[in-house]
Structures are given as structure tokens and as C-alpha cells.
Amino acid sequence: MADTSDIRNGLCIRYNSDIYKIIEFLHVKPGKGPAFVRTKLKSVTTGKVIDNTFPSGRKLDDVRVETHKYQFLYPEGDTFHFMHTETYDQITLEKQSLDAPGLLKEGEVVSVLINSEDSMPLSVDMPASVILEVTHTEPGVKGNTATNATKPATVESGAIVNVPLFINEGDKIKVETAKGTYKERVKE
């Protein structure tokens, strides 16, 4: 059993007869009244995100998880195939258990949370950022840089990311996986 002081990003808890992963939290101590913890919980079975507030000191039923490194092999419809990097065991996961499936390219190594009790995969933690090649984008219009102008670009995984006007096809860019936003251009 854990309580609200143990809450951190990535903690898996059993709540309302489902398993949720905490993706955001904020400890709040108002001037009047008791402290509480405001959280965003993502269901590992459905992918649905809910907001919830726990009173400070409340007991939580945490789920013991193990983290293993898996390599992404290929997508097949709404399922994604992964291979354990050490044992070469293969697993398939549903699209909703991934945080950013559009930014996943073949060969990418991710962390998979596995329930210690029944060895079932719960969710996939992407790296903080990924490097992807731009496969299609319109050329930037010269002189259109009065503000932070951006344009849509399709990357090798098929996702569309807004990039600055100086990015061209064939450039490699670093994309932040949590928000799906452009970070920087990568020189080789």
C-alpha cells in the first residue's frame, strides 16, 4: 500500500477496478482546509485519461511493476509488435497502451511496464525525445519570418509535426515525445 506522498509520474495504481498510470500530479496546500493531490490518470487498458483529486494521506493500492527494454519491430493494424532486447521474446500491445504511437519508428528501444503479479504488459514509456527524418514538407516562403512561423512536416513514422520554416525534406529533427513538438534540427 502506498499513500499520496508516494505519488510520482509513472506510478501504477489500482483505482475503480482498473489499473491507472499517473501521468501528471500536483500537491496542493491551500491556505484554508486540508492538503490534496490533483492527478491525471491514464487507464492502461483503455487509454482513457481522467482527472482525479486525492485527499492528502489517502491510501492507494499500488501495482508492482517491472520495467524492461523492448525494441519496436512493426505495426499491424491497431497492434504493435515489440521484442525484448535481452531474451528476444516478442509481445504485441494495443495502440491505446502507447503514449505516442505516431512517433514510434522501427528499431526504436522503449521501456515497457510489466505487471509483476501476472506478467502482463501494462504500458509503454517512450524516450523523452526521438530523432526522425522529414519525408515531406512544403518549402518555406522567403520573408515569412516576422513571427515564429511554422509549417507542417510529415516525418518517417507518418506523424505530422509543426516545424520552423528552415526545415527541409531529408533533415533529421528531434521531436519531444510527451507533446509531439519539434525541439531542434539534428546535424550529422
Automatic annotation (TrEMBL):
Source taxon at top rank: Bacteria
Coiled coil: none
UniProt keyword list: Cytoplasm, Elongation factor, Protein biosynthesis
Pathway: Protein biosynthesis; polypeptide chain elongation
Gene Ontology MF terms: translation elongation factor activity
Keyword Cytoplasm: yes
Domain Elongation factor P C-terminal: start-end pairs: 130-185
Subcellular location: Cytoplasm
InterPro entries the record matches: Elong-fact-P_C, NA-bd_OB-fold, Rib_uL2_dom2, Transl_elong_fac_P/YeiP, Transl_elong_KOW-like, Transl_elong_P/YeiP_cen, Transl_elong_P/YeiP_CS, Transl_elongation_fac_P
UniProt KW Protein biosynthesis keyword: yes
Membrane-crossing residue ranges in chain numbering: none
Domain Translation elongation factor P/YeiP central: 67-122
One Pfam family linked to the record: EFP_N
Matches recorded under Gene3D superfamilies: 2.30.30.30, Nucleic acid-binding proteins
Function: Involved in peptide bond synthesis. Stimulates efficient translation and peptide-bond synthesis on native or reconstituted 70S ribosomes in vitro. Probably functions indirectly by altering the affinity of the ribosome for aminoacyl-tRNA, thus increasing their reactivity as acceptors for peptidyl transferase.
HAMAP family, sorted: EF_P (MF_00141)
Family per record: Belongs to the elongation factor P family.
Protein name in UniProt: Elongation factor P
